[in-house]
Each structure stands twice: as structure tokens, then as C-alpha cells.
Design brief:
Blueprint: H1 2-9, E1 28-30, E2 35-39, E3 45-48, E4 54-56, E5 63-67, E6 72-75, E7 83-90, E8 96-107, E9 112-114, E10 118-121, E11 128-132, E12 137-139, E13 149-152, E14 157-162, E15 168-175, E16 181-191, E17 197-199, E18 205-208, E19 215-219, E20 224-226, E21 234-237, E22 242-246, E23 248-257, E24 263-273, E25 280-281, E26 289-292, E27 299-302, E28 309-310, E29 317-320, E30 326-329, E31 331-340, E32 346-356, E33 362-365, E34 370-374, E35 381-383, E36 389-391, E37 398-400, E38 402-403, E39 412-414, E40 417-424, E41 436-444, E42 448-460, E43 463-464, H2 471-488, E44 495-505, E45 511-520, H3 527-537, E46 549-550, E47 556-557, E48 559-571, H4 581-584, H5 591-608, E49 614-619, E50 628-636, H6 643-652, E51 670-672, E52 681-685, E53 693-694, E54 713-714
Parallel strand pairs: 2-8, 10-16, 18-24, 26-32, 34-41
Antiparallel strand pairs: 1-4, 3-6, 5-7, 7-8, 9-12, 11-14, 13-15, 15-16, 17-20, 19-22, 21-23, 23-24, 25-28, 27-30, 29-31, 31-32, 33-36, 35-39, 36-37, 38-40, 40-41, 42-43, 42-45, 42-46, 42-47, 44-45, 48-50, 48-51, 48-52, 49-50, 53-54
Length: 717
């Protein structure tokens, strides 16, 4: 309204009298659009014009004015001032309307280029790269992108640019429509960031220390290195490929640096293990391993299973002092297993294997009950026997059994009566067999055969020469003789006892004893057999088991002996069976021979027992075929019987018709060949001990196991 008043005041609008104003409508006015003008930077102000805005009014006559007016100079600036221009339209009646628009005069600046920083890495494995870069960003405040004039020193790429080439300078310019020029410059460079590459880099190495040491010389293959630059790397660290390492883990590094400062490494670890760990047994028995012996053997095949061990260095070597499935005798065995690893560490597994005997022993031979004869004057007698033996699977051969507690051992003095002897068999493991028992019956024998004799002793109880025959020494001699005949000699089964009625010293200071032997009645021996039994029981035919020693060949019996011979042609062993002459008599130990010998002894005894001072008979070794039986008849030396008496006794015992031998009229079923020579020889007397000379091949002794048929005794030799 004020602007309108100013216009009126200035005469631009002439008002009519108020009485004349009839138009109240404001004019219509259309302002120009905002005006933007770009100028170069050398212009400080710009005259700006615009057409007069068009204004209309119903009353017509509209006046339009602008402020500032068109053609005014506007100040230029970088961003423009955005000056406001006001346009007003007024009619004659004072109605008005105004509008505004902006005038902006600004400098047109050169295009702005934003250049990149271009640094390209080399192509993989190569020393170069093809470098590209993005489009440069160009902005301009006036000129459109399409109107800009752009120039480039290089295109949008550089091919195969080496990393070690000088950087390339790239310049780009842009000119706008007003001729303003903008430019940017950047550097294109290829850089090598690729590390040197190691080939054949060793893998991690693990070695065991040398045996007995804590170190190891470790070797490996040398790696090689290359670089994409094609040049040898510099600054290379190259450890030797053979070094002595102590126990532990060592980090090995090969390094190589190229001329761009890139460093490549080859890294691995060397480990030297010092093995101080001993192997470990996995199943060592912790208790005794027991096996029963195999039946009827003293051993067992034993197998305690596989003994195994482990070790950190691999499977150890296992040895042992006994092998599995080995046959071991009964007993205890300390087994030692040894596990040794490759570094000499040793572990031991120790356990005991026991082979147990559970099998009871068995007696091989248990003595039969037997009787021992003694004289009534003896309070007791020393009795011996062959002790029973037993076999056991745990023992090689046989073993002598032990008497049971309370049972008498061999060599004990036993009084008359029955004595139960018991033995037990026990092996080392305590297994026992059934008891072996037998009875020793000590019988006082009153009906005995008495044979008198004498003996010279050179040493009695270690005393050589003169000594006093004390009762103790005499008893010792009697015991020696009793033991000799009862225990040591072949006469033991029929021996009853010995008496020593007298003793004297002879002219040579030898001790002469007179003795009387007692044998059970009947007994079948002769003088020579008794002598041989006596001497054989002595050591070296001289020494008793004690220190008593005899004078050689000084044992004599006071007896007479007759000698005869018969020939049997028929021997009946049962009512229907006859003895085979060919097979009956070849073996003197055979059952047939012994049975026939017993029959002959009984008949000889019955035939000659009536002779005066008769003592015993003995058949000598007879022969097969028609059985030839030589025999002896022993009488005391005081007997008055003659050989004719003996022939008569024998003739009376033969049945004249059948020639059966029938002493006392009792059938013997033994038949003679004839009763005449040579089948029956006349009975002759064997030379007494005073006869020492022989003629015609005769003999003064009778050997009970040889065939001796004739002898001639002479006093005048």
C-alpha cells in the first residue's frame, strides 16, 4: 500500500475524486520467471533486462513498474545474490497488485574434476599389470556433461605396466561452454605386493633322540624360492638342512624378501623326542598262575596267554625266560617278561607259574607179611625188610616210603609176637596213597636144625692182636653174625639164630669163637652153600659191616656130607598132566623148576631124616631130559651113619615094581629111570675138611650149583 502511495505521489497514478471511483478490482499481473545469469569471473556486475510484465484491468489503463527497473546492474557473485525484483501494477482507481521474481548473477566456475588414486597390484605370478581406472567425476555449475569438452592424456587403461617402471602421469581436462577449463592429474603405478613363494617346504619333522642320548641330527631337503618379479629374492634366511637338535620342538623359518619388500616364509617344526617312557604291559598277571599236572606225568603243558605291551615309540620287543605252551615239570617258576622299546627303555612283567601235583602216589610193591624166627634165649631180634616203594607222577623212578608214625622202621629190635608195619606214601605236594601194611611175626622157634662151627677173628672192634673178650665185644660179634645170616645172606628165610658157647685165643693171637647156627626145621642147604652165603655177605670176604674182621677162610662147620644122584624118568604134576622134561628144568628160577625142586626136597627129607644126627638135605642143580638130580645129605660131625645106611634108606623109599619114589609109603608121583648105575649112583661121603689132596679128578667140596659126580679122598697126598 505504501508502494502504491509512492506511485501516486510520484504522479504515476492520478486519482480521481472519491466521488468518481467506481472500480475496486485489482489489476491482474504476471511476473517474469526468475532470471539466472552466469558470467565469467572477470565481470563484477551484469545489466539485466526483462520484458515489461503484462498487466490487465477491467477499467483499462494499468500502469506497471519494476523495482529495480529492467536494465539495472546486478552484482555478480560465486553463488549468486538472488536479488528480488518487485513488479507492481496499478489502475486509475488506485487498485494495485504486485509480484516478485529473483535475479541471480553468478560467476560461471571451471568444471571440477575428481581424479582417482590409481595403484594396481601386479597380476598373480607376474611382474606387470594392466591398469584401468574409473571415469573421472566432472561437475560444472552451468554446462551439462554432454556439453563439456574433455581431453585425456591417456585412455582408460595402460596395458602390461611393469611394477618397476616409472609411474605414469595421467592428465584430464574439461572445458565448459563459457571456456572455463578444469583439469586434474593423477599417477598410475603398478606395485608388487606378492610375496616370494617357497617350493618343497619341508613338512613338520619328528625324530626320536639317538639311543642313549638326548639329541638327534635331523636332516631335510632344502626348499627353493621364487618371486613373481623374476628376480632372485634378497635378504634370504637359509638355515642348514642338517643340524643337531636337542630334545624339544624347534621352529624352523626360511625367509626371502623381494625388492618390493615383500617377505615370504617357509615354516615348519622340528621335534626331537627324548623317550624316557618305558613300555607298559597291558595284561601282566597280578597273581600266581596255576596249572594242574597232566595225568600220569610230572609236568604240564602250560599256557598263560599272550602277554602284550605298548609304548609311545611303537610296538616294543617282548622276550621271556619261558615260552607259552612249554612243558614244565611240577614246581614253581618265576617268569620274567621283558618289553624293550627302540630306545632301550625296558619294562618288566614278573609273575609266578605253579605246576601243581594233585595226583596221589601209588605203591609199587608192598611187602608181604613174613615171619622171623628167634631162639627162646633171645629177648628180641633185629628185623629188616625191603621197604616198600611208590611211584608218583611228580617223581622219576620209585621212592622209598616212610613208616607211619608209631610203626617200626627196618633194623628195629622186635620182641616175639606180631608187629603191624605201616607205610605211607606222600609226595612233595602232600598227596597221599593208601597205606601199605604188613605183619612181621617174630616166632620163638624151638624145633631147629643146629649146625656147630668155629670162626677165627683177626680184628674185633678195631683192636688188632691181644684184647680182652669182654661181654660187650662178644655181644657185638654175636650181633654181627646174627645180622649177617638174618639180613645180609641168602640163608635169611630159614635162619633162626646163633649162639656162641665158647671163645679162646689161638697161638697166633686170633680170637677163635665156637658158634651154633639154628635154622628152621626143615631147611634145604649144604655145607658149601652155607659157607658161600657167609663169605658173600662179608665185604671183601673178610669184613663185617662193623670193624670186626675175620681170618681168611676160617669159617668151618662141624658136619659130614653124603653125596648121591638119581635120575627121574617120569614126573606127574597132577592126575592127568605130566611134566615136560624138555621145558621143566632149563631155568632154575622158573615156577616149574622151583615147584619140582620143592617136591624133590620134601622127598629127600622124608627119605633120609631117620639117619643118625641128620640135619638137612639139598638137591643140586638138575638137568633137563630125563631129570638128573644130584643131592647132598648133611649130618652132624658126630653122626655114626654110613653111606651104606644112606643107600638102604633110599632103597626103602622106592617102590620096587613101579620105581615110584614113595618115602614112608606116600606117593610122590616121581618115578625113577632105574635103581642101578648110572641112573642111581651109590651114595658116597664128601671129604672132610682135613682132606686137602685130590686124585682121579675128584673133589673134596660140593658146589651146590655145579654138577659134581665123583670124588676120591686120600690121606697120603
Amino acid at each position: 500500500m505504501r508502494r502504491t502511495q509512492d506511485l501516486v505521489k510520484n504522479g504515476l497514478v492520478k486519482l480521481r475524486n472519491q466521488q468518481d471511483v467506481k472500480d475496486t478490482e485489482d489489476p491482474e499481473l504476471q511476473c517474469p520467471s526468475n532470471i539466472d545469469i552466469s558470467v565469467t569471473q572477470d565481470i563484477t556486475g551484469q545489466v539485466v533486462t526483462w520484458p515489461t510484465p503484462n498487466a490487465t484491468n477491467s477499467s483499462g489503463g494499468v500502469t506497471v513498474i519494476s523495482y529495480p527497473e529492467s536494465g539495472a546492474t546486478f552484482q555478480a557473485s560465486v553463488s549468486g545474490q538472488n536479488d528480488t525484483v518487485t513488479v507492481m501494477a496499478a489502475d486509475a482507481y488506485g487498485n494495485s497488485f504486485n509480484c516478485t521474481f529473483l535475479v541471480n548473477v553468478r560467476y560461471d566456475v571451471p568444471p571440477v574434476l575428481t581424479c582417482p588414486d590409481v595403484s594396481q597390484e601386479t597380476a598373480p605370478g607376474e611382474s606387470f599389470a594392466t591398469v584401468t581406472w574409473p571415469d573421472v567425476v566432472i561437475t560444472d555449475d552451468y554446462t551439462s556433461d554432454s556439453a563439456l569438452v574433455i581431453t585425456r592424456s591417456h585412455g582408460s587403461m595402460i596395458a602390461n605396466l611393469q611394477y618397476d617402471a616409472d609411474p605414469v602421469i595421467v592428465t584430464i581436462t574439461a572445458q565448459d561452454e563459457l571456456g572455463n577449463i578444469g583439469r586434474c592429474t593423477f599417477t598410475v603405478d603398478v606395485v608388487d605386493t606378492e610375496k616370494p613363494v617357497w617350493s618343497a617346504c619341508p613338512a613338520n619333522v619328528t625324530e626320536m633322540a639317538e639311543l642313549g642320548t638326548k639329541s638327534k641330527v635331523v636332516r631335510w631337503g632344502l626348499p627353493s624360492v621364487s618371486d613373481n618379479s623374476g628376480k632372485d629374492p634378497i635378504g634370504t634366511n637359509n638355515p642348514p638342512a642338517s643340524q643337531l637338535f636337542s630334545g624339544g620342538t624347534w621352529h624352523m623359518v626360511y625367509t626371502a624378501t623381494d625388492d618390493s619388500g615383500n617377505t615370504g616364509t617357509c615354516e615348519f617344526y622340528v621335534t626331537v623326542i627324548v623317550d624316557d617312557d618305558v613300555p607298559e604291559f597291558t595284561n601282566c598277571p597280578t597273581s600266581q598262575v596255576r596249572f594242574n599236572s597232566d595225568a600220569n606225568t610230572n609236568s604240564a603243558v602250560v599256557d598263560w596267554g599272550d602277554i602284550t605291551a605298548t609304548d609311545n615309540s611303537g610296538t616294543p620287543t617282548i622276550t621271556s625266560n619261558y615260552a607259552r605252551n612249554q612243558r614244565l615239570d611240577i614246581g614253581s617258576y618265576d617268569l620274567v617278561y621283558q618289553a624293550r622299546d627302540i630306545h632301550g627303555n625296558v619294562a618288566f612283567c614278573r609273575f609266578n607259574v605253579l605246576v601243581i601235583d594233585t595226583e596221589a602216589p601209588g605203591f609199587v610193591a608192598c611187602p608181604d607179611s613174613f615171619s622171623v624166627f628167634i631162639l627162646g634165649s633171645q629177648p628180641s631180634v633185629r628185623v629188616s625188610w625191603t621197604e616198600p616203594t611208590f611211584m608218583d607222577n611228580s617223581i622219576q623212578g620209585t621212592v622209598t616210603a616212610m613208616p607211619s608214625p608209631g610203626s617200626s622202621p627196618p633194623g628195629s629190635q622186635l620182641a616175639p609176637g606180631e608187629h603191624l608195619i605201616e607205610y605211607m606214601a606222600m609226595d612233595a605236594q602232600g598227596n597221599t596213597a593208601s597205606t601199605c601194611s604188613f605183619t612181621v611175626n617174630v616166632i620163638v622157634q624151638t624145633d631147629t636144625i643146629e649146625l656147630d662151627g668155629e670162626l677165627l677173628l683177626d680184628i674185633v672192634h678195631g683192636i688188632d692182636g691181644q684184647f680182652t673178650p669182654t661181654i660187650a665185644r662178644l655181644q657185638s660179634l654175636r650181633d654181627d653174625l646174627d645180622d649177617l645170616f638174618r639180613i645180609s645172606s641168602s640163608l635169611a628165610p630159614n635162619f633162626v639164630g646163633i649162639e656162641m658157647p665158647a671163645s679162646i685165643f689161638d697161638a697166633s693171637s686170633n680170637f677163635k669163637i665156637q658158634f651154633r647156627l639154628h635154622f628152621s626145621n626143615p631147611s634145604y642147604y649144604n655145607e658149601e652153600e652155607i659157607k658161600q652165603a657167609f663169605y658173600s655177605a662179608l665185604t671183601d670176604n673178610l669184613n663185617f659191616a662193623t670193624t670186626n674182621t675175620i681170618v681168611p677162610e676160617s669159617f668151618n662147620l662141624g658136619v659130614r656130607e653124603f653125596r648121591g644122584q638119581i635120575t627121574l624118568r617120569r614126573i606127574v604134576s597132577s592126575p592127568t598132566t605130566e611134566v615136560d622134561f624138555v621145558t621143566c628144568c632149563g631155568d632154575p628160577t622158573s615156577t616149574q623148576y622151583l615147584a619140582l625142586e620143592a617136591r624133590i626136597h620134601e622127598n629127600l627129607w622124608s627119605t633120609f631124616r631117620g639117619l643118625g644126627n641128620f640135619r638137612m638135605v639139598k638137591s643140586l642143580r638138575f638137568r633137563s631130559g630125563s631129570v638128573v638130580v644130584p643131592f647132598t645129605v648133611t649130618l652132624s660131625d658126630g653122626s655114626t651113619a654110613t653111606t651104606q645106611h644112606a643107600d638102604t634108606f633110599f632103597a626103602n623109599a622106592i617102590d620096587g615094581s613101579s620105581l615110584e619114589w614113595m618115602p614112608g609109603g606116600v606117593s610122590s608121583e616121581l618115578f625113577l629111570e632105574t635103581v642101578s648105575p648110572p641112573n642111581v649112583l651109590p651114595i658116597t661121603e664128601v671129604c672132610p675138611s682135613s682132606f686137602e689132596c685130590l686124585s682121579n679128578g675128584g673133589t673134596c667140596t660140593v658146589n651146590y650149583y655145579n654138577d659134581v659126580f665123583d670124588h676120591v679122598c686120600r690121606y697120603d697126598c
